[in-house]
Design a protein that fits this description.
heterodimer; A: 120 residues; mainly alpha; three-stranded antiparallel sheet; 6 helices; 68% helix; elongated; B: 158 residues; alpha+beta; Alpha-D-Glucose-1,6-Bisphosphate, Chain A, domain 4; seven-stranded antiparallel sheet; 35% strand; globular; START-like_dom_sf (chain B); ASHA1/2-like_C (chain B); ArsR-like_HTH (chain A); DNA binding (chain A); DNA-binding transcription factor activity (chain A)
C-alpha cells in the first residue's frame, strides 16, 4: 500500500506540468520518437529531455532505443492505478449511499422518526 | 464544486428528509450503515454542530476496534446540510488522513417522493507530497481525467 501510495504521488507530481501532460496526450495516440515529440514543443531539447525523464522515472512512459532513435510509449498500467484510486474514492461514497438508502427505507415503517421541527 | 477534482452523487431516497437526517445524526443509526457489512462501525463521538466531532471506529469481529474516521463538522443546517472534513481532526488539529483528505458536503433536499440526497466530496491535493500549487494542476485535472477515461476504455477494448 505504501508502494502504491508512493507511485500515486509520483504520477500526480509528474502530471502537474502542462508540457508533460501534453506529452501524455500525444502518446495516447501512439508511440512517438523523442525528436518528433520535441519538435512539437517550443522548449529546448535538454529541457524537453528532463520532462521525458520525469515521466519515465514515475512510470508513465517507457522509452526504447533502437539504433539512434529513442521511441516513447505510454505505460498504461500507471494510469490504471490512478483510475483505480479515483474509482475507489467514488465507490466508498456510492456504497455508503446505497446502505443509507437501505437503512432508511427499511427502518422507516418500523420506527418512525420525529419530524424535522423536533430536531432543531 | 470543481467537476475536475470533486466527486458528487445525487440520489432520490424514498424516505422522509427527517428520517434520512436522523440516520446521519443519531449515533446508533449512523453506526448501522456507515460501513459496509460485515465490518462493524462504532460511533465514538457525534457532535452535530459546527466544530463538533465525528469520530468512528471499525471492527471485523465486534471485539477489536480500530480507528476509522476522526473528523469535525464545519457546517450543520438541521434537516438541510452537513459539512465535515477529516483534514482537521476532532480536536481541530490539522491532519494528513488516510486515504485522502477531503471535505464532504451532504445535502438533504425536499423531493415530492422523498429526499433528494446529495454528496459532494471536495479534494484538494490528491497527493500529499505532490506540489499541488504548481501551475496548471487544477486546470489539468479535467484533461487528465478525460485522458485517463479514454485510455482505460481503450485498455478495456483491447
Amino acid at each position: 500500500m505504501v508502494n502504491e501510495s508512493g507511485a500515486l504521488d509520483g504520477v500526480f507530481a509528474a502530471l502537474t506540468d502542462p508540457t508533460r501532460r501534453a506529452v501524455v496526450r500525444r502518446l495516447g495516440e501512439g508511440p512517438c520518437s523523442v525528436s518528433d515529440l520535441a519538435r512539437q514543443f517550443t522548449i529546448s531539447l535538454p529541457s524537453f529531455m528532463k520532462h521525458v525523464h520525469t515521466l519515465e522515472t514515475h512510470g508513465l512512459i517507457r522509452t526504447v532505443k533502437s539504433g539512434r532513435v529513442r521511441t516513447c510509449h505510454l505505460d498504461r498500467r500507471r494510469f490504471a492505478l490512478v483510475e483505480d484510486w479515483l474509482a475507489e474514492q467514488h465507490r466508498v461514497w456510492a456504497g455508503r449511499t446505497d446502505r443509507l438508502e437501505d437503512f432508511v427505507t427499511r427502518s422507516d415503517s418500523e420506527s418512525p422518526t420525529p419530524p424535522l421541527e423536533d430536531l432543531r | 464544486m470543481n467537476p475536475d477534482l470533486d466527486l458528487s452523487l445525487q440520489r432520490l431516497i424514498r424516505a422522509p428528509r427527517s428520517t434520512v437526517w436522523s440516520a446521519w445524526t443519531d449515533a446508533a443509526r449512523l453506526a448501522q450503515w456507515f460501513l459496509p457489512s460485515p465490518t462493524i462501525a462504532r460511533v465514538d463521538r457525534l457532535e452535530v454542530r459546527p466544530g463538533g466531532a465525528l469520530v468512528t471506529s471499525m471492527s471485523d469481529d465486534g471485539t477489536v476496534f480500530v480507528p476509522h474516521m476522526d473528523a469535525c463538522f464545519l457546517v450543520v443546517e438541521p434537516g438541510e446540510r452537513l459539512v465535515f472534513t477529516n483534514a482537521l481532526d476532532s480536536t481541530w488539529r490539522p491532519t494528513d488522513p488516510a486515504p485522502v483528505p477531503m471535505t464532504a458536503e451532504i445535502t438533504f433536499g425536499e423531493h415530492p417522493e422523498g429526499t433528494q440526497y446529495g454528496v459532494l466530496v471536495r479534494h484538494g491535493d490528491p497527493s500529499a507530497r505532490a506540489r499541488h500549487a504548481e501551475l496548471g494542476f487544477t486546470e489539468g485535472w479535467g484533461g487528465v481525467t478525460a485522458q485517463l477515461a479514454r485510455l482505460v476504455e481503450t485498455i478495456a477494448g483491447e
